[in-house]
Write a structure and sequence with these properties.
single chain, 383 residues, alpha+beta, 6-stranded antiparallel β-sheet, elongated
Length: 383
């Protein structure tokens, strides 16, 4: 029996390692695309590499359960296709003895995911978010991405979009807009080139534009003219060779809230903030505030115990899939994982509706997978 357990364990670990490596790379690849604009804007490769390393524990929370599901379906599907399951049952080996190595791995992974979710990943995620703002003091351009609208000044609603940047920090094809508090465009600026300059040791920054033109817009006045056929002054248009626009990166950073998000709080801090929040509220406010904290805690725990749920449901699917092709097994894994994570998103959407108890709804996929898997295994053991 030890030989059989060792064989199944090695097969699960081999497939799991391959699946985990692929999934980690896929989830990190979204950040790889940002590396090009980050590095082209003068960001440090070492800082970017540190950001990726800090994100790995957060990614592993999702990768470990999914990798175990992929490994379980593929391994037991292959064993079923090769009639290994039939041979073992004919030799007197029960189905629970066959799946025992997988159950042990699932329990171990539940412990690892709990450790990552409650204590390791949240503070590292907070560190990574803080690290993203460090290059701002040296080069604000590192937080801008070409082709995407980015906010340069929170106090004045100043947004910029540029075509591309060069290695020396020069921006080309700049489109700058300033919005009112109501979201209306006050003025629109286009420039051929521009550069962001900073004064070392201070919080003063400026955007220097070359060959620019400015259009003063008032969409509310234009709309009124169209509705009432009244004459209003045409938008002003100006152009010049250069202009310097002061920015307030430092002030924006100073006004940024120092309180951690719930996702970045370890267990002790999360429970302490929960107790403080409940003590400050009454009635519906108190209930709503506590729901967000409880939902975050239950979401971490539900995700931590998902390896066991994925394993119990993945084993019957693998055994009943008698085809040796891996496409069907991978498709089953994708559907099951999608259903699980959609439930988590649904529960997050109910965070402001405590009467529906989203902290309990988030456990439904775990219960359904475990109950369904146990029922299927009992039926398989009787045949």
């Amino acid at each position: 029996m030890r030989i059989i357990n060792r064989h199944i364990t090695k097969s699960l670990l081999a497939t799991l390692s391959l699946a985990m490596g692929i999934l980690v790379f896929v989830m990190l690849s979204a950040h790889f695309f940002r590396a090009f604009s980050f590095l082209a804007a003068g960001g440090s490769p070492l800082v970017f590499a540190k950001l990726l390393v800090l994100l790995i524990p957060e990614i592993l929370r999702y990768v470990l359960p999914l990798s175990l599901l992929v490994s379980t379906v593929l391994v037991f599907s292959r064993m079923s296709a090769d009639n290994e399951i039939v041979a073992l049952k004919a030799s007197g080996v029960g189905i629970w003895q066959i799946v025992a190595p997988g159950l042990l791995l699932a329990v171990i992974f539940c412990g690892i995911c709990t450790w990552l979710s409650l204590w390791v990943a949240p503070p590292l995620r907070n560190t990574s978010e803080q690290l993203r703002h460090e290059p701002l003091a040296i080069n604000p351009l590192t937080l801008l991405e070409s082709g995407l609208a980015s906010s340069l000044s929170k106090s004045s609603n100043l947004n910029v979009r540029f075509g591309h940047s060069e290695s020396n920090g020069l921006l080309r094809n700049i489109h700058l807009t300033q919005l009112s508090d109501n979201g209306e465009i006050l003025w629109d600026v286009t420039a051929a080139t521009g550069v962001i300059t900073t004064i070392p040791g201070t919080q003063t920054s400026a955007l220097v534009l070359r060959d620019f033109s400015i259009s003063e817009l008032n969409l509310s006045a234009t709309k009124a003219r169209q509705q009432n056929d009244r004459e209003v002054p045409l938008p002003g248009f100006y152009s010049a060779s250069s202009i310097t626009i002061p920015l307030d990166f430092g002030d924006a950073e100073d006004t940024r809230s120092l309180k951690r998000k719930l996702k970045t709080m370890p267990l002790g801090m999360l429970l302490g903030d929960l107790a403080w929040t409940i003590s400050q509220g009454t009635g519906d406010v108190k209930e709503n505030s506590g729901t967000r904290h409880w939902l975050e805690l239950q979401k971490r725990l539900a995700l931590s115990f998902s390896p066991l749920a994925f394993l119990l449901l993945g084993i019957p699917f693998g055994i009943q899939n008698r085809r040796s092709e891996t496409t069907a097994g991978l498709l089953i894994c994708l559907v099951l994982a999608l259903f699980f994570y959609l439930f988590m998103l649904w529960a997050d959407g109910l965070a402001n509706r405590p009467k529906y108890h989203p902290e309990l709804i988030i456990w439904l996929p775990n219960l359904l997978y475990e109950v369904g898997g146990l029922v299927a295994l009992f039926r398989i053991s009787r045949h």
